[in-house]
Amino acid sequence: MILLLLLTLTGLQVTETSEETVFVHEWGVVSIDEVIPMAQGAQRGYLEESGMLQPYSSMAVDAPVIWFHGPEFTGTLTVEVQNGFFSLLIPLPVSESIDDGTVPVFPEGDNYIAVWEDLSFTDEAAVHSDRLNDRRVESVEEGFEWAMPFWRQVPSLMVRYGPSSYVDRFIYYECSASNLFKEEEPSGNRQLGSLVFHAEDGEFAADLVVAPRNGIRVEFAVSDEGILEVLQDWGDNEFLAEEIEALWKTWEPSLRTRCILYEETIVLFPLTDEQVESISTIELQTDQGYHVEYSRLFLAMGSI
């Protein structure tokens, strides 16, 4: 402290590194049944009282959901899609001025990059579920608003993005994942464990399949609580309980519908860190110089 005071009095510039940490949490689901696999956050449709998700169309909504935790800060978020493209960005990155020379979404080789500048993250107690300031969602991308209240229940920092008057608890993007299994088959992931969903006597059921070195172990009739524990374990226990619950509440209706109405058997399993990075990379730069830690959980989902 004395040294800092002396340096200040002598007019020398002092650069202090903050010990504060910002935590970035992201999850998404990749539909590997699609012609072009997509990293998904929810599917378009409307939620019935029965818990079934009735789709508006066969097209999937492709989007991971990102939350931010820690001290209040300002900064820039960059998302880069590897060998692919964005199909939706919420909020839509925009330039402050068309004459400033910046491009918020641009190609670089085979990749696409999206940049949100001048983001503000504040600690506010609550967000009303009927509050949706991104008009692009309301007017253009209708179909997955049913899932957004689940995402707003996560006690994360509030995201403010002035250029599009956006205020919410998350940032959301859609992207392709066409090179996901280029090097290896999807079955290799299942050594990490998988959840298998199906209909049994007309009821929605889930089994846990684990393949350790000494053989395959199956746990039948896994409860909702058990599913949440598996998802939390796949996320290395780095996610808030509310984030894992939001994941399950978002995807359980779709799984239920496919299994009961369409008599499909669906497998869900985690992607490796290398596979997640092959889909997209994210980088958060804070104006305050805070340390940033990332937790990313991507799941693959497909019919068997």
Layout of SSEs?
Blueprint: H1 2-9, E1 21-31, E2 38-40, E3 46-47, E4 53-54, E5 65-69, E6 73-81, E7 86-90, E8 105-108, E9 111-122, H2 135-139, H3 148-152, E10 158-161, E11 166-168, E12 171-176, E13 194-200, E14 203-210, E15 217-219, H4 224-234, H5 241-260, E16 266-270, H6 273-279, E17 280-286, E18 291-303
Parallel strand pairs: 1-18
Antiparallel strand pairs: 1-2, 1-5, 2-12, 3-4, 5-12, 6-9, 6-17, 7-12, 8-9, 9-10, 10-11, 13-14, 13-16, 14-15, 16-18
Helix pairs in contact: 4-5
Kindly summarize this structure in a few lines.
By secondary structure, the protein is an alpha+beta fold.
- The gyration radius over C-alpha positions equals 21 Å
Number of helices: 6
Q: Report the count of strand segments.
A: 18
The major beta sheet can be summarized as: 10 strands, mixed
Low-confidence stretches: 1-17, 54-62, 129-141
Helical residues, percent: 10-25%
Share in β-strands = 35-45%
What gross morphology would you assign?
globular
SS class: alpha+beta
Tell me the quaternary state.
Answer: single chain
Overview of this protein structure:
The chain has 304 residues and is α+β, with helices and mostly antiparallel strands. 18% of the residues lie in helices and 36% in strands. The protein has 6 helices and 18 strands. Strands 1, 2, 5, 7, 12, 13, 14, 15, 16 and 18 form a 10-stranded mixed β-sheet that branches. A hairpin with a 6-residue loop joins strand 14 (203-210) and strand 15 (217-219). It is globular.
Supply the key terms.
304 residues; 18% helix; 18 strands; globular; alpha+beta
